[in-house]
Q: What sequence folds into this?
């Protein structure tokens, strides 16, 4: 492998040999499925830098054309949305979605997800995943909340950095690691009204405080590419915003990889955002803003050539872009080895499937249990509900048979286990019977037989009711104004509740829905989100106590749609004083960030904090009868600050596994920067004064021990 100096020298040599046309082509990313094979081959021969959404042999053919038939033979870099597994390939291992995985609060889960995905992507001959999403899921009406690591900048940053390390390995140059892409830079999830791709009500100060930290952690972890966002800040589309693109990303974060636009961002400047009259004008702005690679808007090629010729874009601007792209290609060793070989035979191999199972188990969040779980005495179980046996709903977005724009005609490939199947197998192993009835559909008017479900469940000893959302309600352009359970799901819940049979509600959904009494009036409530291949099996294991659930919410649950956004790190104000909240609903969420229980309870005591060393510690004791894993969460509040600061902010967490009766002192080495804020001058500072440190089981007040101190 070349060292950095050698790479820089080589980049300059290649650059010096490139024509203007070849530089422009290197900046183009061609959408294979839209361009078609012939057109794609033509682009490859012209020296296009990248293609997206092309798999296996098609990619290999393109690569051969680029290397053998383009003048300079610069290898192409292939990008794919391998979002929670290499999901667009039908034999890949599918993990829980980012949101589900974030509920594990386990960075090793994220790292392994990245590593397995990278190996499978590389085995397809590809190099690059458009992952992770580092937007925050704060307004849960947004259709893409499932793709985020939840609502909190700290947790999202930790999980994001870990998955980047998993994808890229040491340096991306070996056969089994690929290039990661932190996206969408920046603030995409914060669109007004959660209207996908619309403007954000954002200031640079707020951007730095809440939305930048996960990207900073990804850059520090060495992420090699960044994708711009669709939105805008104060009237300037992010993709052409000089402050975020240049000053912050390159200047302050020191990012030295390449920037790719999102899908057709350049044309959006004309067609959707109306800040340019012509594509040519948009291309000038995009190039000058520092976009190195242009996704799908192939018009860029001609437009940028004429812009250089008539002086609107300097050739050095193209040089910079190509320099960034070639540097990454060289770091990945693509010139020596244009095709990654991965590990033949690894698609869905036993080792990978085991990791997907483990991730699903660790991601499950038990949110309510009056003692009904784990189930023991039952003879007959009824599994009811629209999402009990809907593998599409369980997988979530971005897989070969669930991404609406790419491929809905595919059939799901085994192995996978739905909740129904998991429960059937678990019941059979215990000599119990298991009856299933769908009851109703998630969407109105497709299917309803609540009476049939009542008949099935009437003589059961326990009911597992699985509700949620379906793919038609998830993803790009699928924002929801109403988060309550859709269709006749509440009627189905009420019919089940009326039977007086112990009732466990399970949520198989892309995000927190306003589940209301379907959770509150059930005997137990499990949040499974989109658990991937083995999401259903994980639920069955939790129901029967084969696993001791240890997931914690990475995102808060609203009581009703109108309460959104309900994230825990709110700024203080009148509305929420003295716990008054809304006049028709309490202030707090139904389930709070960090919440989750298992079959053992943990007691906290002996909070310590040393003002000199900033070491904090707390004693945690497993009060239950089973070994369990607790996630110890550390929050702080800046008591008086020059700008409003959140009522609490997560600054650290650690997991500890404890045997029954066992105690451990969990310690945290904190720093002054952990207690910092972004002041009005947009500087990160730790202001002297009073602070409150809180350590405990969740972000809820009653779950936290507190101590005050001054810095
Ligand atoms: C648009 C999406 O916003 C982005 O996340 C994705 O990576 C690209 N399309 C490519 O599919």
A:
């Amino acid at each position: 492998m070349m060292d950095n100096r050698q790479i820089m020298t080589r980049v300059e040599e290649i650059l010096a040999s490139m024509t203007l046309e070849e530089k422009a082509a290197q900046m183009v990313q061609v959408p294979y499925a839209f361009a078609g094979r012939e057109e794609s081959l033509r682009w490859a021969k012209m020296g296009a830098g990248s293609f997206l959404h092309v798999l296996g042999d098609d990619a290999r053919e393109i690569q051969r054309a680029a290397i053998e038939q383009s003048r300079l033979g610069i290898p192409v870099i292939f990008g794919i949305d391998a979002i929670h597994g290499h999901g667009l390939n039908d034999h890949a291992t599918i993990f829980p979605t980012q949101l589900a995985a974030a509920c594990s609060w386990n960075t090793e889960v994220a790292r392994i997800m990245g590593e397995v995905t990278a190996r499978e992507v590389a085995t397809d001959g590809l190099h690059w995943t458009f992952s992770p999403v580092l937007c925050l899921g704060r307004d849960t009406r947004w259709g893409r909340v499932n793709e985020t690591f939840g609502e909190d900048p700290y947790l999202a940053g930790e999980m994001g950095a870990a998955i980047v390390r998993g994808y890229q390995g040491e340096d991306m140059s070996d056969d089994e690691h690929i290039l990661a892409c932190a996206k969408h830079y920046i603030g995409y999830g914060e669109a007004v009204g959660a209207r996908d791709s619309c403007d954000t009500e954002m200031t640079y100060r707020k951007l730095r405080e809440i939305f930048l930290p996960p990207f900073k952690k990804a850059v520090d972890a060495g992420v090699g590419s960044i994708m711009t966002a669709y939105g805008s800040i104060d009237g300037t589309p992010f993709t052409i915003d000089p402050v975020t693109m240049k000053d912050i990303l390159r200047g302050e974060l020191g990012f030295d990889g390449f920037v790719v636009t999102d899908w057709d961002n350049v044309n959006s400047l004309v067609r959707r955002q109306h800040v340019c009259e012509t594509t040519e004008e948009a291309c000038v702005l995009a190039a000058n803003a520092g976009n190195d690679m242009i996704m799908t808007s192939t018009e860029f090629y001609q437009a940028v050539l004429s812009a250089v010729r008539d002086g609107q874009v300097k050739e050095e601007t193209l040089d910079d872009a190509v320099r960034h792209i070639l540097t990454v290609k060289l770091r990945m060793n693509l010139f020596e080895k244009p095709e990654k070989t991965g590990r033949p035979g690894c698609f869905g191999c036993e080792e990978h499937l085991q990791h997907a199972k483990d991730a699903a188990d660790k991601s499950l969040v038990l949110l309510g249990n009056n003692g009904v779980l784990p189930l023991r005495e039952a003879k007959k179980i009824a599994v009811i509900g629209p999402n009990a046996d809907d593998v599409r709903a369980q997988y979530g977005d971005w897989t070969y048979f669930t991404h609406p724009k790419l491929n809905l005609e595919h059939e799901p490939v085994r192995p996978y286990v739905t909740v129904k199947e998991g429960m059937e197998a678990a019941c059979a192993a215990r000599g119990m019977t298991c009856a299933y009835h769908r009851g109703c559909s998630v969407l109105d008017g497709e299917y309803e037989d609540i009476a049939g479900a009542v008949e099935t469940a009437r003589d059961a000893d326990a009911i597992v009711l699985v509700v949620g959302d379906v793919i038609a309600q998830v993803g790009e352009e699928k924002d929801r104004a109403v988060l309550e359970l859709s269709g006749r799901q509440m009627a189905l819940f009420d019919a089940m509740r009326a039977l007086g049979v112990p009732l466990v509600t399970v949520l198989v959904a892309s995000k927190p829905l306003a589940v209301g009494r379907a959770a509150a009036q059930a005997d137990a409530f499990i949040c499974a989100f989109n658990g991937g291949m083995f999401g259903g099996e994980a639920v069955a294991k939790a129901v029967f106590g084969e696993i001791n659930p240890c997931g914690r919410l990475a995102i808060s649950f609203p009581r009703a749609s109108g309460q959104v956004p309900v994230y825990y790190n709110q700024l203080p104000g009148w509305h929420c004083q003295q716990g008054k909240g809304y006049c028709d609903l309490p202030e707090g969420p139904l389930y709070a960030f960090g919440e989750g229980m298992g079959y053992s309870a943990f007691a906290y005591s002996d909070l310590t904090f040393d003002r000199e060393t900033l070491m904090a510690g707390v004693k945690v004791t497993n009060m239950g009868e089973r070994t369990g894993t607790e996630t110890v969460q550390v929050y702080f509040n800046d008591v008086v600050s020059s700008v409003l600061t959140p009522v609490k902010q997560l600054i650290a967490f650690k997991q500890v596994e404890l045997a029954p009766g066992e105690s451990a002192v969990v310690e945290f080495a904190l720093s002054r920067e952990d207690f910092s804020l972004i002041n009005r001058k947009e500087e990160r500072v730790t202001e002297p004064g009073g602070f409150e440190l809180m350590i405990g089981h969740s972000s809820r007040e009653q779950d936290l021990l507190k101590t005050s101190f001054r810095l």
User: Anything to note?
Assistant: The chain has 21 helices and 25 strands. The mean pLDDT is 96.
